Amino acid sequence: MDRRESLKNLLAGAAITSALFTQLSCERAPDHEESAAASPSDFPFEGTRTQEEQRRDARMHATDFFLESEKQTLTTLSDLILPEDGKGPAASKTGVVDFIEFMALDFPDFQVPLRAGLAWLSAESLERFENNDFSALQPAQQKQLLDEIAYLPDDPMEELTAPVAFFDLVRGLVLTGYFTSKEGVADLGYKGNMANIWDGVPQEVLAKHDIEYDPAWEAKCINQDTRETLAEWDENGKLLN
Fold first, then answer.
1. Is residue 166 scored above 90 in pLDDT?
2. Contacts 24+ apart (CB under 8 A), 82-91
3. What is the mean pLDDT of the chain?
4. 35: pLDDT confidence band, cut at 50, 70 and 90?
5. Distance from first CA to last CA of the chain, Å, rounded?
6. Which CA distances in Å does 173 have to 21, 24, 50, 102?
7. Residue 60: pLDDT above 90?
8. Residue 184 clears pLDDT 80, i.e. is over it
9. Of the residues 111, 193, 203, 212, which has the maximum number of CB atoms within 10 A of its CB?
10. Cα dist. 235→5, 214, 229 in Å?
11. Is 9 exposed, middle or buried, given 0-12, 13-18 or 19+ CB atoms closer than 10 A?
12. CA distance 221 to 93
């Protein structure tokens, strides 16, 4: 099983977990006043949203939570978690960073662990490699840092350290964002609801119950030549075709 397949299984079998950091570094509260420039009509699905939901969506789309430097770090983390391969593009190419920002605004409990975790990663990069920009580190240096926080303890009851909880949260958000994107759905091979061909109940089953089809109904209901034709009924509920 390759790494991408393993991540699919991780997404299917594990819920996103988060743990609040005890302190918040460099927090910048979302400025909801910026929403004045946004209109609910700027966003899709108007017919399925109430006016209040549309106004809330507009506020969120008009708000930036992450700094540009934080977005760059999240882009790097996303592509380290799920890089490009023969089955799909790198995670960042599918909009997962925007998805993570939307989730941080939609679920405020994510804000502290995400921002504090990014601050921790920057501080560790500076202390160990004299560069606070994680994205600018050499791949071996990035791997050294992530190897310390990328693995969950063997004991599921063991409390996660804050850096491990941060990476686990980011990993879950990246996987969720990717595998719900157009590219991720194609990667999964999901085709959705598709019409199949029904040839009726097998003859051995009909014989077992001593029943048989009415030939007239069978001709109407199990005729693959007319499977694309919509059924029509008369005023008495009689099937016409």
1. yes
2. 82/4, 82/7, 82/174, 82/175, 82/178, 85/2, 85/4, 87/4, 87/187, 88/4, 88/178, 88/183, 88/184, 88/186, 88/187, 89/183, 91/174, 91/177, 91/178
3. 81
4. very low
5. 50
6. 18, 20, 27, 11
7. no
8. yes
9. 111
10. 54, 22, 19
11. exposed
12. 47
Residue 111 has phi, psi (to 5 degrees) of: -65, -45
Q: What average pLDDT does this structure show over 19-27?
A: 36
The two three-digit tokens of residue 82, written as one number: 């799920």
**Vertex 171: Cα angle to 176 and 63 (nearest 5):** 70
| 165: nearest Cα among 187, 150, 145 | 150
Model confidence at 217, pLDDT cuts 50, 70, 90, reads confident
Report field, pTM of the whole predicted structure over 0.70: no
**151 band by pLDDT with thresholds 50, 70 and 90:** very high
Sign of the dihedral defined by the CA atoms of residues 15, 146, 117, 138, in that order: negative
State the amino acid at position 177 in one-letter form: G
Strand partners, 239: 233
- Supply the DSSP symbol for 88: B
The total of other beta-carbon atoms located within 10 Å of residue 135's CB is 18
Retrieve residue 186's tokens.
Answer: 């194609």
Q: What is residue 49's predicted lDDT score, i.e. its pLDDT? A: 76
Per-residue pLDDT at 107 = 92
Sign for the CA dihedral angle at 102, 104, 106, 107 comes to positive
Interatomic CA distance for residues 133 and 123, integer angstroms: 9
How far apart CA 69 and CA 75 sit, in angstroms, is 10
Helix (H, G, I), strand (E, B) or coil at 233: strand
* Burial class of 25 by CB neighbour count within 10 A (0 to 12, 13 to 18, 19+): middle
